Amino acid sequence: MNNTTNKNTKFQRFLASDFFYHFKRDKLAIISSIIFLILILLAILSPLVAPYNPYDLQILDIMDSELPPVWQQGGDPRFLLGTDDQGRDLWSTILYGMRVSLMIGILAVLLQGVIGITIGLVAGYVGGRTDNLLMRIADVQLSFSTLMVAIIILAIVQSAFGSDAFNQWAMVILILIIGLAEWPQIARTVRSSVLAEKEKEYVDAAKVMGFSPIRIMFKHILPNCLSPIFVISTVQIANAIITEASLSFLGLGMPVTEPSLGSLISIGKQYLFSGSWWITLIPGAFLILLVIVINLLGDFLRDTFNPKLYKD
Amino acid sequence: MSLLEIENLTIEFPNRHGTEVAVDKVSLSVNAGEILGLVGESGAGKSTIGNGIVQLLSKPGRVAAGKVTLNGEVISGLQGESIRKIRGSKIGFIFQDPMTSLNPLFTIENQMVETIINCLGVSYKEALERSIELLTKVGIPEPEVRIKQYPHQFSGGMRQRVVIAIALSGEPDLIIADEPTTALDVSVQDQILKLIQDLCTDLQVGCILVTHDMGVIANVTNRVAVLYRGKLVEIGETKDVLGNPQHPYTQSLISAVPLAGKKVDRFPLVETIESIESGLKSIDVTTHWLGQSSQHHNTDDLLIIKDLNLSFLTQDAFFKKNRKRLQATDNVSFSVKQGESFGLVGESGSGKSTIARMIAGLQQPDSGSIVYDGVELINNPDKEKVKSVRQRLQMIFQNPYSSLNSRMKIKDIIAEPILYHHLAKTNEVEGIVGDLLDHVGLGRKSGVKYPHEFSGGQRQRISIARALATRPRLLICDEPTSALDVSVQAQILNLLKDLQDELGLTMLFISHDLPVIRQMCDRVAIMRQGKILELQQTEDLFEHPKDKYTRELLDLMPRFDDLTHDLNANSHV
């Protein structure tokens, strides 16, 4: 009891927490989070870190196109990982592309979160017909594959507004589509934890105190449901990044001028058999690394937040 | 020589904050045919001793030191196969919850015969015969038929009998019974304890009975060992220990047990158990915010309940006539006078909690009326009026571990209703919260902590402080102490009594525990299957019960006081 008094700052309390204790003992989690942090930093700081700006068309030289990485024969020391078909430095393009991928992933999951949490809370707390209605909507939504919905909407938008307008708004549209298509995942998780929480007596106590349902839902129940939301959000970010990459690979995602990891892989596809494997494989490796690391962190969070799994 | 000897048994649970010693150098012995009671509060290490003997400690617990000898053979430190042989064949185990200690996927025959073949190495036929014999012995009617059935076809008491039969099937020398009757109703508890007692004398089996219930200890054990925080504080013949306790802890533990036979004003000697903060600022209720209630009606009956009905749908169907309903409350009427303590008693499923929930507004009745402080609460069109009246009606819940929001600080939990209903000026709230915390014996400094940093009793104090924050006049206590140890229960009951005296609170006290009711209530209603069977002054009800069911309940109540009182009388002579 006495030594808790000098552990007052939030950081010190974090260092003493069970969460950090388990984290220190999990090598996989440490390695994953280090890689994840490096990737995030590189992505955020890409304008500073990257040797070239791949969006700047003026510095592109078509003579530099399809150069292999430096360790290959014919590599150019200016381009560490080689260049793509337009002569863009692949390393810089990957950094910028990762930024696009992460941004779409995170913002899409935020959107999913807002919709999913609200609907899940209301369905779980109110119950009865409202619950039935909302969850059936979620079931219907889930019975369409995300990719299918996305492809149809993207195709319609592209043909309706023309590809110029589409290219301009591609990122926003992708975020909206992925966010709207995947909310049932979060809504279901939230609903099931709300169902468990609302039976607890603190909710009854709040009702007897005369608090409004909105206050009980958001102030009392929601904070107690945060850990599963946190866990599923991590996994959903990885999923969103993959979805975006798949759409871009199919040519329905980010435009060539503003490539994400997926569109880079797609660009390289046609050069794969002519020997320029790096345009596809190197961005592909980064994509895999990013997704694996996020998934591993999600697994770690799930194990730590679930007290039923005993860890010594 | 005795059957089981335990010498200096020490059991540790190492964790990252250090090593927690759960059992500290305990030495005791059990003779054949004798029942030794292990009594203590939660966390005293009584179950851990039982598990430690047969090395069933959950990780990371370990036996750090000490020697356990069974029939002259050292069994501590045995590994793997050899300890497994001892369990089952030499030591039988009876667990707390009969609902979960049998495998629901196998018939009783599967489970018993398997154990017998494993332990005794006999043929299937012999094992089957022996199983039937054992089931007869533990009092299962028609054992040849019942042995083919699955656990869900047995009632709780019957299942516990089967568990006992399985524990006996390896012809053990020692039985460890870990709270064998805690999950059962009183009437069944009585039979199971008698059964264990008879079997121990008949078969000359030693028994360690782990329990927290002093009534059980007084009724069935020959000797008793009292544990306190892992240490053995007292051991001896049951009547000596209970009648003339030597150790101060045993004394306070015994004084904390609510007596069924007479009413005392306060529980004495309980302050040593969970120390409450001393030197707290006491508040003068007459001038303090807490004592100033905005409106005062001087109605005689604060709460009037008339013809309250509620039924639950137990089986839904498309057609109305096929739907099955359970009448949870059946035309219940009673009234609670200003300032009194009204008790509602009944077994589980009698509808007593449902009534509390309806009064608190957590459930809507099908029909009937609830009038509180002169205002009808059911179907009243004046919603604002109902809302303002309801504020002065608060509830304390059974489970202190789930009744507080674990993500909020204590001071925020208590301040929330005051701020939400604008009951005090914002700049005064912090002071009021501090005063409330002082008043329930926690101290204002504890406001910055989170609920998980408190024990069960302390959390119940927080619940009480929160309920007081809306300045209620009626406090509904739904089994407020049934999740707590007796000594902590005594402290909470003392606190409730004090608050009632100071603030003139009216209380609706719901419990299944008759001795507690006797200590707390002025009038009592006995409930069964949604009906009120009898409503009387407490003293009259306990001395001259009119209804047959009431008499039955009173007879089955574990009589702890009779024994000690006789003994007290004897020791004084």
TrEMBL record, chain A:
Localization of this protein: Cell membrane
Main localization category: membrane
Keywords from the named record: Cell membrane, Membrane, Transmembrane, Transmembrane helix, Transport
An individual GO BP term: transmembrane transport
ABC transmembrane type-1 domain span: 98-298
GO cellular component: plasma membrane
Pfam families recorded: BPD_transp_1, OppC_N
UniProt topology in membrane: Multi-pass membrane protein
Cross-referenced Gene3D superfamilies: MetI-like (1.10.3720.10)
Annotated transmembrane regions: 28-50, 100-128, 140-160, 166-183, 221-242, 277-298
InterPro entries: BP-dependent_transpt_permease, MetI-like, MetI-like_sf, OppC_N
Similarity-based family: Belongs to the binding-protein-dependent transport system permease family.
Name the record gives this protein: Peptide/nickel transport system permease protein
Native organism: Cocleimonas flava
Lineage: Bacteria, Pseudomonadati, Pseudomonadota, Gammaproteobacteria, Thiotrichales
UniProtKB/TrEMBL annotation, chain B:
MF (Gene Ontology): ATP binding; ATP hydrolysis activity
Keywords: ATP-binding, Nucleotide-binding, Transport
Domain of life, per lineage: Bacteria
UniProt keyword ATP-binding present: yes
The protein, known as: Peptide/nickel transport system ATP-binding protein
Family that this chain belongs to: Belongs to the ABC transporter superfamily.
Protein species of origin: Cocleimonas flava
Residue ranges occupied by any ABC transporter domain in the UniProt entry: 4-254, 305-554
Presence of the UniProt keyword GTP-binding in the record: no
Classification via InterPro entries: AAA+_ATPase, ABC_transp_ATP-bind, ABC_transporter-like_ATP-bd, ABC_transporter-like_CS, Oligopep_ABC_C, P-loop_NTPase
GO biological process: peptide transport; transmembrane transport
